[in-house]
Protein: MFS transporter
Organism: Nocardioides eburneus
Amino acid sequence: MTTATGIGDFRPVQRRNEQRAWNWYDWANSAFYTTVLTVLFGPFMITVAGRAAGCGDSPDDTCAKTVSVLGLHLAAGSLPSYLTSFATIASAFVLPVVGALVDRSSHKKWHLAWFAWAGAFFCALLFFLQGDHWQLGAVAVVVSSVLGGCSLVSYYAILVDISTEEERDAASARGWAFGYLGGGILLLVNLVMVQGHSALGLDKELAVRLSLLSAAVWWAVFTVIPVRRLRDRPALGVVPESGGLVQRSFGQLWTTLTEMRAFPMTLTFLIAYLFYNDGIQTVIYSASIYGSKQLHFGDSVLIAAILMIQFVAFGGALFFGRMAQRYGAYRCLLYGTFGWMVIVVAAMFLPERNIVLFLVAGVAIALVMGGTQALSRSFFSLLIPRGREGEYFALYNAAERGTSWFGTLLFGLVFQLSGSYRPAIVSLIVFFVLGAVFLLRLDPHRGVAEAGNRVPRVL
């Protein structure tokens, strides 16, 4: 990096400028995770698949009737959960190889770009989810989820290039906050479109389909900003391997997996994150389904609640970023898992059609959601050996937003067995308990030192 000499060190300014550019990808991809995966896709897929299963169009129908998927008879009400679970299983095979490829590349931002644009293309295919034709939508949401995870491998790896250890928590928190703001703004537009569809000359389902399409366009267009403003950097710490690029990537991945035993604290955090993040993602994903099918709220209440969560989470992410600078990211993460335990238990007892209590629960979710997600990303970056960010963040991203496996699988199974979403939502407490148990076994100072990184003043 070239800096001016004799005048001052401009590297902090240059890093901050790149961090601002980097934040725009949080803004871009949050549209997919918020508008599509969190709010509209689940209930709409249940409606479309429900028609094929013979459930009808009633919003009160929890739709336990089945559709055939590759010879399996799955409840239409559980289909979105199973699709998300399948996307994560696919990601478990794809993302680690992508991570090794990213680590060997000097063009991380272009890996981010092409995965993002391909994901946006498949997201746009959700526009054709209509009538009782659910199959194309099922394929599109799985592929776009996997591609979104691939783009995040490069995105998270870039954070290490553009920030010091002391800057990570604040940089990550600003990114999450920016993402919540962007996702919230698009949700506001979609709220107007869906709820005011008659005034716009649209039927309701067309408004939903246009909203799904808008998320794809938003994702693709705003990805241009970080691609234009970020700088590519040479790969560091590349493991010598022979063969072609893909063969060398597999070789580096195998070397990394065998060397993980030398970083027990990193592995401990990854296991903790796998559990508590699966719980977080499933709560976020299932919120609209739970509110629509179990608490019987209409789309206007659900979208308004999720919109409120987005804007409250904007402040929550920034607040947790400041708290981490004072008390350390590790302690804030541990307390955050305790907060999630309280939330899922309380959610089970929410009365039907009680808007006030539903919104109170939404505020609680928003406050802890932003902080735990932002600090997880920055804290994990401190536990990664330099030059292996892509591979480690690939493992991290296998359990990231929209790609939960165990949580969505458990949520779908409990619903299918009980016919109610109440036991399904409270069953998620097991993930937060297990996450807290592994966090308590973690020595953060030892983990950062073992990875060869500088231990921040407050950890």
